[in-house]
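re: ur question from earlier - yeah i can do the single chain one, its not a big deal. heres the input i used so u can compare w yours
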Amino acid sequence: QLQLVESGGGLVQPGGSLRLSCAASGFTLDYYAIGWFRQAPGKEREGVSCISSSGYRTNYADSVKGRFTISRDNAKNTVYLQMNSLKPEDTGVYYCAAVTSMSVATMAIRGSWGQGTQVTVSS
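and the output i got, formated as tokens:
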């Protein structure tokens, strides 16, 4: 079962930073492209960023380009999302998953959703 565990969320002021982690248990992430998604209150879940299995290709939603950076450490079986210059509209529950494509807008997940990690950007 491809299910990943997210961590690193929290409460941060506008302009602040957080680094989210996405870890796998029981299987290796090496073979999979990984995507980050978020769901804001009252809104549908949306793709934020994705990274290829090798780590050489990355894509971002327009709303986070230049502020978020996705990376992976296959030796640690972990994918990261560094979020800088956070805005209140970045608030939501963030999820990671193995994905079927490198299109942030249309990527579908392999396996099931995890619990997510809450990110709240507020003063």
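The chain has a mean pLDDT of 95. not sure if urs matches, ping me
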